[in-house]
Amino acid sequence: MEQQTTYYELFQRSLANPEAFWQQYADAVPWYTPPRRILSTDAGGLTRWFAGGRLNTCYAAVDYQVENGRADQPALVYDSPVTQTIRAYTYRQLQDEVSRLAGGLRSLGVGKGDRVVIYMPVVPEAVFAMLACARLGAVHSVVFGGFAPHELAIRIDDAQPKVVLSASCGIEVDRVIPYKPLLDAALRLASHHPSRCVILQRPMQPALLHAGQDTDWQALVHDAQPAGCVPVDATDPLYILYTSGTTGKPKGIVRDNGGHAVALRFSLDAIYDVKPGEVFWAASDVGWAVGHSYIVYGPLMHGCTSVLFEGKPVRTPDAGTFWRVVQDHRVKVLFAAPTAFRAIRKEDPEGQLKKKYDLSSLTYLFVAGERCDPSTFHWLTDLTGLPVIDHWWQTESGWPMVANMMGVEPVPPKPGSSARPVCGYDVQILDEDGNQLGPNQEGNVCVKLPLPPGCLPTLWNNTEGFRQAYLSRYPGYYLTGDGGYIDEDGYVFIMGRVDDVINVAGHRLSTGEMEEILAGHPAVAECAVMGIACDIRGQRPIGLVVLKDGVQIQEPQLESELVALIRERIGAVASFRSVAIVKRLPKTRSGKILRKSIRQMADGIAFTVPSTIDDPAILDEIRMVLQTRHIGLAFADTDTAI
Ligand code: COA
Ligand code: AMP
């Protein structure tokens, strides 16, 4: 990064002339053929970056590093307290693992453009799998291991993979979760059938393999000829990552190869201030965007050592685990969700465990995935004495949109704000009519087009859906789905989603989907699901249901059936635990359920009863129900689940 440049100069340059700006950073990517155009629009009028460029993302992340002096540097350090394993892979070893797995996949017929679904726990093989797909020009779609078969099936049907890569089991604190039966169940639910499933057998619980469907991972790799890197276009898809929208159908976010490579390298330098050879740890799951960008592709393309952690911030074995990992691997940058620190704080409020470890390597603590509440921010800052950097992004962007750019010009933090827009993102706050709002006025957070490199160019097989969901609300702008404001100093405050998406322990989930599931229960006439405040997970969903006429069912019975239904269809990660029966739901005269008012009531936030409400007495009824059941922080609700 140009040390002399101020944030403002660099940011202005990125907006005034995006082509010149990103051309400069594109030079850091090892292209086979440099791009012909920096910024262009495709036949459908959508933004494309680096058209004509040819590269291979796996080459940039692995082979290029081997060829340029990093062969013996650790590329990946797998630290798994749940299996008592610590194992480092140098870039040369990573190249060997990845090229053999790619050869194995090729022997199963996987080639450029084919899709491969990866449903795995946080193990090195999951990283090898992603890179092996990239090596072949195949398009991977990683499905978070905590999702239930139904969710996996939806993604299999949409991505239509040739092959699925999975493992016999995952490990959750003190429990083994067999993955293979979940995969088999998903395949029974899906209409599309992959030609092969490759299963990594883990010793804690090996799986029964089905002849004709399953292949043993080790056998496949053992017999494979290493495969080389297949050049692809900059605009070819590298991966699809499904994320929750407002309905039961997740959105297939597409990431291209060229823009992604340029943006991630820029971000490591300019935002995270990390240099090649240094150690970067994103304490996430490979199944999330954070895992894709900052466990796998970003740090490796930047020549860093990346830590892959299979564990939790607490109970594996205790709330000192994060600090132990920082010490053992000399981590410079730690990136985690605020939820993780809230969990640590709950178990070790005075930070006694931290004192046991040498954290001298740690320079920055980055947090994202949900709003970093000021109380967590202050606790963490006081405990560590380090810069705590809240930064805001989405699966769609793939890299931060608002951050304190530590590699350019750090600014003093403001608790509750993720600081200033990152270069390339013209963040604006718009009112309902599309007028730009002034300082401190809250509205819809939007980004003026074009989005910078790395952001989604479209949705998988659904360009119309892409336009509808993101571009149609305000022509010329990308709609982020978040509400917030920008203060007089240009600091952005993201206040939460304005749609039916919630964030539970950093996991993005759709309340719309949960409502669809609850509504399918034979006793339920009508329902509403809201994300209410939770002192550990940030938010947790609750359901209010109205019974069909004549149905006789006790509330505890219905609650346990509906809780089981959400676990079965979405997964335990939804942390859906509370259902209350109500007589009626509060609505506007036009029939819109007033979910926000219910949420604010549960959270103890003062609110004005909307003037459009049909019958204000219903809100009082709901208040009584929440109070009687102790649902919501306003009614002495406590999260006892960690
Ligand atoms: N596979 C299978 N099950 C999973 C899973 C996975 N990969 N991840 C979570 N689950 C299950 C858990 O076992 C738990 O099941 P239970 O209800 O039967 O106990 C349930 O889903 C809820 O999980 P979680 O919310 O993670 O609760 P927890 O009590 O296990 O842990 C935290 C709480 C706060 C420690 C944990 O949520 C956490 O570390 N959060 C940070 C998340 C994060 O890093 N997000 C990345 C975004 S940047
Ligand atoms: P995901 O796509 O899973 O990364 O979730 C993206 C959503 O998480 C955003 O739209 C926000 O609602 C929320 N989010 C992520 N990071 C932050 C942050 N730093 N501050 C506030 N909200 C955040």
UniProtKB/TrEMBL annotation:
Residues 68-449 form the AMP-dependent synthetase/ligase domain. InterPro entries: ACAS_N, AMP-bd_C, AMP-bd_C_sf, AMP-binding_CS, AMP-dep_synth/lig_dom, ANL_N_sf. Residues 513-592 form the AMP-binding enzyme C-terminal domain. It comes from the Bacteria. Residues 7-61 form the Acetyl-coenzyme A synthetase N-terminal domain. CDD domains: PrpE. Belongs to the ATP-dependent AMP-binding enzyme family. This is Propionyl-CoA synthetase. It comes from Nibrella viscosa.
